[in-house]
Amino acid sequence: GSITDSDLVLRVFSDYEIQTCIHLAAQTAVGIANRAPVPTFETNIRGSWIVLDAARQWPGLEQMLVASSDKAYGAHKDLPYSESVALQGDHPYDVSKLCTDMIARTYANTYGLPVAITRCANMYGGGDLNWNRIVPGTMRSVINREPPVIRSDGKPKRDYVYVQDIVRACIMLIENLAKDRDAHSGMAYNFGTDDPVTALEMVESILDISGDNNVKPIIQNAASNEIQDQYLSSKLAEERLGWKAEYSLHDGLLETF
């Protein structure tokens, strides 16, 4: 079925008597969003309001989480981004997550829907087979004994967070929302490591873990519609949820590899 099928989504809530909903469904590839904005908007924006409206109509819902993204912030000079920074994404994927974020908060503030929002840094981990992403793409190149490719000039700085830390973040946020709906409903939380690295540093870290330090990456300097430096402050999540990333970049990459 499709996330944009409103009748199907509402039936899922009813048939399975959903109490907790974690909405992660999305088109997540920036490159695909640039090439095909309309399907991205259909999935990420329309799909989100359909899920949120089904949740509004289903009386059994007790708590809900919606995944936004650090990309919703767009480009800002002041780093790291806190949750109070304006959402001003300019490009298709960024705008699609910005809209998802704002629609979720609309349902919380207007209809009292018990929904909270996650804004996660760049996630990586086992099972990600999107070879256009820097971590799986570089690891595949290393395994195939090929030089890894960096699409940018290697200098863009990002915060990379291991998927197990994000799973724990989602569970902790849902649990806190269940305990105190008023304190967390309509709230957005950043989740990252507070330790950003450049694209070149990320590739070098993977090469170091693989033991193949003699390979030199190919730097294409061809990335478009991407923000130069973007990373988050996770201070609010630590203060209000007790969450903090547990995996270092080295440990997360080692487990992924």
From TrEMBL:
Coiled-coil ranges per UniProt: none
Transmembrane segments: none
Pfam families: GDP_Man_Dehyd (PF16363)
Domain NAD(P)-binding: 1-254
PANTHER family in alphabetical order: DTDP-D-GLUCOSE 4,6-DEHYDRATASE-RELATED
Entry protein name: NAD(P)-binding domain-containing protein
The organism of origin for this protein: marine metagenome
